[in-house]
Amino acid sequence: MRAHQIMTRSVISVAPHTSIVEAANIMLKRHVSGLTVVDDAGKLVGVVSEGDFVRRSEIGTGRKRGRWLRFILGPGESASDFVHEHGRKVSEVMTASVVTITEDTALAEIVDLMERNNVKRLPVVRGDKVVGIVSRANLLQAVAGLAREVPDPTADDDHIRGRIIDTMEKNDWCPFGLNVIVRDGIVHLSGVITEERARQAAVVAAENVEGVKKVHDHLCWVDTVSGVYLNSPEDDGLAKAS
């Protein structure tokens, strides 16, 4: 399998000048743990993630280094810490050296890159423009294992996947972080919904695409107020049966 067969196409991005508060609110509202950062021309310039909000002066978690360590590291490191803990713009806290992949990157290589660089997501680029993102999910290793044992999705599967995504993205109930995997006409839907009725709408939308044989629902429901989440009934049933 390749990146273009599993990536999320609707990438949520912010600009370098976006405020820290706005970026944090976007992540909370959209239930994502990271955002790509693009300039006015749409070029990828960085990534900001939950980890960038851990060491912040507002919550009293700034890094405290001993005098001897500060002497060894020098004033440069201390200055960098200060900017990261007090910065008000995304550009001041983001990771600028971003590991990226292309649409044709093999899934096994994606997993290797994530593990080697200790990252949870990899932007998918075409030239210098972001066209998707592959995030580390609980089933990523399992999917990578399956990909070695079964044939890659066919051109028909890719066509089905594209039609499902195009259909759903036109609707306001489209799951956040929608991911669609199709193999031999069998569809696996994953993402986040905040309205239970959106689950049935997503399944029906997939079922109505020509060539779909079966739809598996892995959509996770999240309460926007409390943050409580529930797995899909299908996944819950599998967990109880195991």
Residue-averaged pLDDT: 82
Spell out the helices and strands N to C: EHEEHHHEEHHEEHEEH
Strand order of the largest sheet: 6-7-8-9
**Quick one: overall form?**
globular
Q: Span between N and C termini?
A: 27 Å
Structural class: alpha/beta
State the low-pLDDT regions, or none.
none
Approximate strand percentage: 15-25%
Number of beta-strand segments: 9
Helix content: 25-40%
Largest sheet: 4 strands, mixed
Radius of gyration: 20 Å
The number of helices is 8
Keywords: CBS domain
Protein name: CBS domain-containing protein
Domain BON: 156-223
Pfam families: BON, CBS
Descriptive labels:
242 residues; alpha/beta; BON_dom; CBS_dom_sf
Could you provide a short overview of the structure?
The chain is α/β, with parallel strands linked by helices and 242 residues long. It has helices at 20-30, 67-73, 75-86, 107-117, 140-149, 155-169, 197-207, 233-241; strands spanning 13-14, 34-38, 44-49, 121-126, 129-135, 176-183, 186-193, 214-222, 229-230. It is globular and about 65 Å long.
